C-alpha cells in the first residue's frame, strides 16, 4: 500500500507518534495540522523544497480560468474556476421607475435645482477621487450616491448549491453566504466600479421654445444642465431621469474548495465586464420605459478600474495555537521566531489562495484587493485590506503580500483580457 | 470463461448467469442474471477447484492502482469515500464526549472490513477510502468547525466494551479524553443515531492522544501514555502499537 | 417581504425590460421565430461530464446542445433577446452520510432531492426561495431515482442530491402570448435533464443502482406548416421555443436494462389530437413510447459518460482487465 509515503510523512512530522504507520490519506484526515506541517517543513536531509500538501508553493495561486457570456438569459455572465472552486455569476438587469421610488419625487424631480446644487457641492471631492483613478479619462461628475441610495446593485451569493457537504440545500443563506454577499456589496460600493451614469435612463422632454435642446446628445448632458441653471430655472427641466437599471448580480458557488471570496469577486468582475444593457427610453404614450432589442444599440458598462482580490491564510507550526485561545505573542516570543527563521526553521507560513483543507487550519486571514492606476500602467493602489484572526502578519509581511497581490493583478488582468 | 466478461462495467450491465456466478459486492441479481450495480472494473474470484461454490463476480469500489503513490497517480485516480461502517469494521474515530457510562466518538475512517476476510477478498484490501485530493478540497466545513461532526457517523463506546478484563473497574475518564483518536471495531449498527464500538482487544484503544500540555504522547503500557516534553504520564486504554 | 438574510433590491420592486419590438405589430418578427431543424425523432446532443466537484461524493454537469437558432444568435448577435435557450445544470451527490439526529431509524438509504433554479436561469428572474415548481421537480426527481437505487445496501444513512439549474428551457417562444395550450413545457425538459444528470452523479458516487436511469421527453405538437392548416405530430426532445403550440407532452425516467419506467409524467390534452386527426399514432401509448425512445438516446450518452469516468477512476485505459 502507501506505506513508503506514509513513512516519510510520519517521520517528517515531529509530533507524529513513532509507532503508528498510516497511509497519507488517513494521516491527512486524523492529524491535518501535522500533515500540512510535515509538507511545509521537510527534513533538511531530504533536499525537498517546502511545499504545501497540495503541491503549491506558499505564494502560489491555483490555476484560474474565466469564461464569459455563456448563459443565455443574462445581460452578462461568467464562470470562474479557481482550482476546484467554481463560481458562476449571472447579471440580470431590470428597470426601476423613478415613480416607484418613494423618496424620488421629494428629493429630485420637484427640486431639480437643489439636486444640481448638491451635485456641485459634492463634485470637487469626487473629482479628486475620479482623477486619481481614471487619470486621463473625462472628469467624472457622476452622482454615484444613486447606486447606494436606491440599491441599484443587488449582489447575492448562494452556497446552497450542494457545493460542499454541510450546506443544507433549500435552507436560508448561511452565515458565510451572508457575509460573502455583504463583502461583495461593500466592495462594489467602495470601488465605485459601476458608474451611475450607465444605469440612468433619461427622458428628453420636447421643449418647443429651445431648439438647441432638440438634439439630445449624451455628452452634452452636463452642459445642458448648467445652461439650464444659468437661465434661472424658470422653465422646467427639459431632461429628467425616468428610470434606472438595477443589476441583480447572483453568484452561485457550484463547487467550494476553499477561498470562495476571490472566486466570487472575480466572477462578478468578469460578468460586469461582459454586461450589455439595451438602449432604453421613456415611452410617453405608454408611460413606460421601452428598450431596443438591437445588439448594435446595446452598450457595455464602462467600469472604473479592475480591483482584484487576493486572499491569504496564515499557518502556524505551533499546533497548540489552533485549539487553545489565541495569545498575543510577546516580544520574547517574536524574537525567538525571528531567530529560528534566521536559522532556517520556519514557524509560520503565509499561504496564498488557501484551499479548503488549509482554510480549516489557519486562523488568521488576510484579504487584499488591489488595482492599478491608469488602466494598469500606473501605481498599485490598495482598494481594500482586511485582516483578522491573529497577530502573525505584520507590516513587513503585508508589504510582501501587496507585492504578491500586484503580481496576481497582472495575471488576472491577462486572464480577463482573454475572455 | 472470464474472457466474455467486460473489463469495466456500468450499472445495469449484464455480467453473467447465476448458474455460473455468485453475485459479489457491486452487483445484484435480476431474472437469474448477475448485473452490475456500480461502475468500475470487474473482478472474478475463481472458486476452489474442488468445492461446489461458483466463482464470485464483483465490481471494485476502489481504484486498484498498483503504481507507487506518487503525486501523478493520486491526481489521475479519484477513489471516493463511501464505505459505511458495518459489523466487524475496524474504524478510527475521534472522541467527542466522555461520560460516566459511555464515550461518544465520531468515525473518521473506516478501515478494512475485517482482518480475517481480507485474504479472501482482495477487493477490500485497498481500503484507502478517501484520497488526498478530495480531502484537501473538502476538509472542514468552513461554516462551523464543530458541525463537521454532524457529517460523520457517530458511535458509542459503552463502559463494558472498553476492555476485556476488569470490566467493572473501568473509569471512563481514565480510558479516553476528548480529542483522542481511537481504533475500535463495530459490534452493532445500534440505534438511529449511534453505532456501537468496542475496544476490548489488545490492538484496539487509543492510538493518538495529546497530553494536557498539548503534546503528542507515546504509549508506554497498555494503560499509560507519556508526554515526551514534560514527561508526565496520563492514563488511557492504549492500543497495542503494531 | 424583505429578506434580511439576503441583499434586497429596491423596495418598490423592479420591472423586467419591455422591448419595443414586442409592442409593435408582430409581422416582422414572425420570420425570426425559431424553427425546429431536427427530424421529429432526432435528439439534441447532450454534453455530460462527471466528477467535476471534488468535495462531493459524486457530481455531474449536463448541457443540451443549443438549437440552431440560438447558436446562430450567439455567433451573429442581432437582437439582445435570445431566440431560445438550452439546459445547463450541475448536480452534486453528498453521502452516504449520517441521518440527522432527529430522524428515526431507517434500514435503507434515505434519499433527499433538491432542485433550484439560479435566479438568472430563466427569461424571468427567479426568487431565491424555492417555489412550487421547483419543489415539484424535486419530488418527481426523487421518485425517478428511488426506483433505481439499491437502498437496502446503505442502512442508517442519507443521500442528498442537489441540482442547480444555471439555464432553463423556455416554456414557449418569447414572442407568443401565453394561451390556453400553455403549460410549463420547459419544466419537462428540465426534469429529463435532472434525471439523467442525477443518475450520472449517483453512479459517480458509487451508490448501488439497478440501472442507469435516463430521462426523455416526447410531445405532440401542432405547427403551422407554410400556409397549410395545422397538423399534429409526435416529436422527440422538443424545444418549446420551436413550436407554436404543444398539445401534450410526456417525460419518463427509464431503465433500459430492465425496460422499466420509474417515473412518468404526462401533461396536456391528448384526447383531442388523436380524435381530431384520426391518428392513433398520437395517443398516450405513442407519446410514452416516444419519451422512452428519447430516454434511450439519453441513456447512451449517460452510459458513455459513466464508462469514461469509471475508466478514469480505475486509472486504466479500457481493456487492461481481462
Outline the structure in words.
- The complex is a heterotrimer of chains A (419), B (242) and C (322).
- In chain A, 36% of the residues lie in helices and 23% in strands.
- Chain A has 14 helices and 14 strands.
- In chain A, α2 (24-30) packs across α3.
- The model of chain A is unreliable at 1-19, 110-139, 212-234 and 321-326 (pLDDT under 50).
- Chain B is 7% helix and 32% strand.
- Chain B has helices spanning 71-76, 115-118, 132-138; strands spanning 8-9, 14-17, 21-23, 27-30, 33-36, 40-45, 55-59, 90-98, 102-110, 154-158, 181-188, 195-198, 205-208, 218-221, 224-226, 233-235.
- Chain B has a five-stranded mixed barrel with strand order 8-9-10-12-11. A four-stranded mixed sheet of chain B has the order 1-6-7-3, with no helix packed on it. Chain B has a three-stranded antiparallel sheet with strand order 2-5-4, with no helix packed on it.
- In chain B, a hairpin with a 6-residue loop joins β11 (181-188) and β12 (195-198).
- The longest helix of chain B is centred in the middle third of the chain and has 7 residues, at 132-138.
- Residues 64-81, 113-130 and 139-147 of chain B have low confidence and may be disordered.
- In chain C, the strands form two sheets. Chain C has a five-stranded mixed sheet with strand order 2-3-4-6-5. Chain C has a four-stranded antiparallel sheet with strand order 8-7-9-10.
- The model of chain C is unreliable at 273-277 and 318-322 (pLDDT under 50).
- Chain C is an alpha+beta fold and 322 residues long.
- Chain C has helices spanning 20-23, 68-75, 132-146, 185-204, 271-276, 284-314; strands spanning 18-19, 46-50, 58-64, 88-98, 110-117, 157-167, 214-223, 231-236, 245-255, 260-268.
- At the B-C interface, β1, β6 and α3 of B face β4 and α6 of C.
- β9 of chain A pairs parallel with β1 of chain C, so a sheet runs across the interface.
- Chain C: Residues 1-22 are annotated as: Disordered.
Amino acid at each position: 500500500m502507501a506505506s513508503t509515503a506514509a513513512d516519510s510523512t510520519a517521520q517528517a512530522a515531529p509530533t507524529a507518534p513513532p509507532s503508528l504507520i498510516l497511509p497519507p490519506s488517513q494521516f491527512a484526515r486524523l492529524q491535518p495540522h501535522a500533515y500540512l506541517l510535515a509538507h511545509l517543513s521537510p527534513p533538511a536531509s531530504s533536499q525537498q523544497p517546502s511545499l504545501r500538501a497540495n503541491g503549491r508553493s506558499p505564494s502560489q495561486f491555483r490555476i484560474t480560468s474565466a469564461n464569459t457570456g455563456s448563459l443565455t438569459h443574462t445581460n452578462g455572465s461568467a464562470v470562474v474556476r479557481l482550482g476546484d472552486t467554481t463560481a458562476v455569476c449571472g447579471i440580470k438587469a431590470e428597470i426601476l421607475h423613478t415613480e416607484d421610488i418613494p423618496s424620488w419625487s421629494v428629493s429630485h424631480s420637484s427640486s431639480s435645482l437643489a439636486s444640481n446644487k448638491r451635485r456641485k457641492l459634492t463634485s470637487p471631492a469626487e473629482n479628486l477621487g475620479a482623477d486619481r483613478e481614471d487619470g486621463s479619462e473625462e472628469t467624472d461628475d457622476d452622482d454615484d450616491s444613486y447606486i447606494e441610495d436606491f440599491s441599484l446593485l443587488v449582489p447575492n451569493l448562494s452556497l446552497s448549491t450542494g457545493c460542499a457537504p454541510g450546506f443544507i440545500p433549500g435552507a436560508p443563506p448561511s452565515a458565510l453566504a451572508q457575509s460573502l454577499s455583504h463583502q461583495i456589496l461593500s466592495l462594489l460600493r467602495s470601488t465605485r466600479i459601476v458608474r451611475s451614469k450607465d444605469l440612468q435612463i433619461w427622458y428628453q422632454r420636447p421643449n418647443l421654445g429651445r431648439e438647441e435642446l432638440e438634439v439630445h446628445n449624451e455628452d452634452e448632458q452636463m452642459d445642458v444642465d448648467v445652461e439650464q441653471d444659468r437661465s434661472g430655472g424658470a422653465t422646467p427641466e427639459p431632461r429628467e431621469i425616468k428610470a434606472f437599471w438595477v443589476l441583480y448580480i447572483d453568484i452561485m458557488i457550484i463547487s467550494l474548495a476553499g477561498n470562495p471570496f476571490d472566486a466570487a469577486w472575480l466572477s462578478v468582475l468578469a460578468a460586469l465586464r461582459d454586461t450589455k444593457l439595451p438602449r432604453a427610453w421613456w415611452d410617453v404614450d405608454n408611460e413606460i420605459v421601452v428598450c431596443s432589442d438591437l445588439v448594435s444599440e446595446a452598450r457595455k458598462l464602462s467600469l472604473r478600474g479592475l480591483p482584484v482580490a487576493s486572499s491569504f491564510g496564515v499557518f502556524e507550526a505551533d499546533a497548540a495555537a489552533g485549539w487553545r485561545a489565541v495569545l498575543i505573542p510577546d516580544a520574547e516570543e517574536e524574537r525567538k521566531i525571528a531567530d529560528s527563521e534566521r536559522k532556517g526553521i520556519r514557524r509560520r507560513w503565509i499561504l496564498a489562495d488557501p484551499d479548503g483543507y488549509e482554510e480549516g487550519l489557519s486562523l488568521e486571514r488576510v484579504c487584499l484587493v488591489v488595482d492599478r492606476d491608469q488602466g494598469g500602467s500606473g501605481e498599485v493602489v490598495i482598494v481594500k485590506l482586511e485582516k483578522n484572526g491573529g497577530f502573525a502578519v505584520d507590516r513587513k509581511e503585508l508589504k510582501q503580500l501587496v507585492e504578491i497581490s500586484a503580481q496576481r493583478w497582472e495575471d488576472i488582468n491577462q486572464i480577463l483580457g482573454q475572455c | 470463461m472470464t474472457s466474455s466478461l467486460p473489463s469495466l462495467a456500468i450499472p445495469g450491465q449484464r455480467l453473467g448467469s447465476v448458474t455460473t456466478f455468485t453475485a459479489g459486492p457491486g452487483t445484484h441479481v435480476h431474472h437469474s442474471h448477475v448485473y452490475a450495480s456500480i461502475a468500475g472494473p470487474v473482478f472474478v474470484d475463481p472458486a476452489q477447484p474442488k468445492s461446489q461454490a461458483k466463482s464470485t463476480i464483483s465490481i471494485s469500489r476502489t481504484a486498484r492502482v498498483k503504481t507507487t503513490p506518487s503525486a501523478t497517480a493520486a491526481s489521475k485516480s479519484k477513489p471516493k469515500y463511501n464505505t459505511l461502517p458495518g459489523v466487524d469494521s475496524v474504524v478510527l474515530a475521534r472522541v467527542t464526549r466522555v461520560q460516566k457510562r459511555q464515550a461518544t466518538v465520531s468515525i473518521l475512517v473506516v478501515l478494512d472490513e475485517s482482518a480475517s476476510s481480507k485474504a479472501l477478498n482482495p477487493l477490500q484490501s485497498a481500503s484507502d477510502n478517501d484520497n488526498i485530493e478530495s480531502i484537501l478540497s473538502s476538509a472542514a466545513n468552513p461554516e462551523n468547525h464543530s458541525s463537521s461532526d454532524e457529517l460523520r457517523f457517530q458511535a458509542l463506546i459503552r463502559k463494558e466494551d472498553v476492555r476485556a478484563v476488569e470490566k467493572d473497574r473501568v473509569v471512563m475518564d481514565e480510558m479516553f479524553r476528548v480529542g483522542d483518536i481511537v481504533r475500535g471495531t463495530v459490534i452493532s449498527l445500534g440505534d438511529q443515531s449511534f453505532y456501537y464500538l468496542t475496544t476490548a482487544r489488545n490492538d484496539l484503544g487509543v492510538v493518538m492522544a495529546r497530553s494536557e500540555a498539548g503534546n503528542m504522547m507515546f504509549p508506554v503500557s497498555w494503560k499509560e501514555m507519556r508526554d515526551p516534553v514534560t514527561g508526565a504520564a496520563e492514563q488511557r486504554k492504549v492500543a497495542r502499537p503494531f | 417581504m424583505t429578506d434580511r438574510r439576503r441583499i434586497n433590491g429596491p423596495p418598490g420592486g423592479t420591472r423586467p425590460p419591455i422591448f419595443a419590438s414586442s409592442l409593435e405589430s408582430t409581422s416582422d418578427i414572425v420570420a425570426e421565430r425559431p424553427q425546429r431543424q431536427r427530424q421529429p425523432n432526432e435528439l439534441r446532443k447532450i454534453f455530460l461530464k462527471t466528477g467535476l466537484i471534488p468535495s462531493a461524493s459524486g457530481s455531474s454537469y449536463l448541457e443540451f446542445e443549443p438549437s440552431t437558432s440560438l447558436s446562430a444568435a450567439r455567433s451573429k448577435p442581432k437582437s439582445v433577446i435570445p431566440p431560445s435557450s438550452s439546459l445547463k445544470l450541475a448536480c452534486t451527490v453528498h453521502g452516504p452520510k449520517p441521518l440527522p439526529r432527529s430522524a428515526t431509524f431507517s434500514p435503507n438509504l434515505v434519499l433527499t432531492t433538491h432542485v433550484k433554479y439560479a435566479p438568472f436561469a430563466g427569461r424571468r428572474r427567479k426568487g431565491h426561495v424555492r417555489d412550487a415548481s421547483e419543489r415539484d421537480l424535486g419530488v418527481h426527481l426523487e421518485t425517478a431515482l428511488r426506483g433505481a437505487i439499491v437502498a437496502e445496501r446503505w442502512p442508517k444513512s442519507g443521500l442528498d442530491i442537489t441540482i442547480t439549474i444555471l439555464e432553463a428551457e423556455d416554456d414557449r417562444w418569447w414572442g407568443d402570448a401565453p394561451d390556453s395550450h400553455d403549460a410549463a413545457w420547459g419544466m419537462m425538459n428540465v426534469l429529463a435533464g435532472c434525471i439523467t444528470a442525477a443518475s450520472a452523479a449517483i453512479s459517480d458516487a458509487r451508490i448501488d443502482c439497478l440501472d442507469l436511469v435516463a430521462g426523455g421527453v416526447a410531445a405532440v405538437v401542432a405547427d403551422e406548416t407554410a400556409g397549410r392548416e395545422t397538423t399534429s405530430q409526435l416529436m422527440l426532445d422538443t424545444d418549446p421555443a420551436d413550436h407554436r403550440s404543444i398539445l401534450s407532452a410526456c417525460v419518463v425516467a427509464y431503465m433500459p436494462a430492465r425496460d422499466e419506467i420509474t417515473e412518468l409524467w404526462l401533461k396536456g390534452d391528448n384526447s383531442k389530437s388523436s380524435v381530431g386527426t384520426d391518428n392513433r399514432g398520437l395517443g398516450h401509448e405513442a407519446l410514452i413510447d416516444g419519451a422512452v425512445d428519447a430516454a434511450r438516446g439519453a441513456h447512451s450518452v449517460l452510459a458513455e459518460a459513466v464508462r469514461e469516468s469509471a475508466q478514469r477512476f480505475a486509472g486504466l485505459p479500457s481493456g487492461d482487465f481481462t
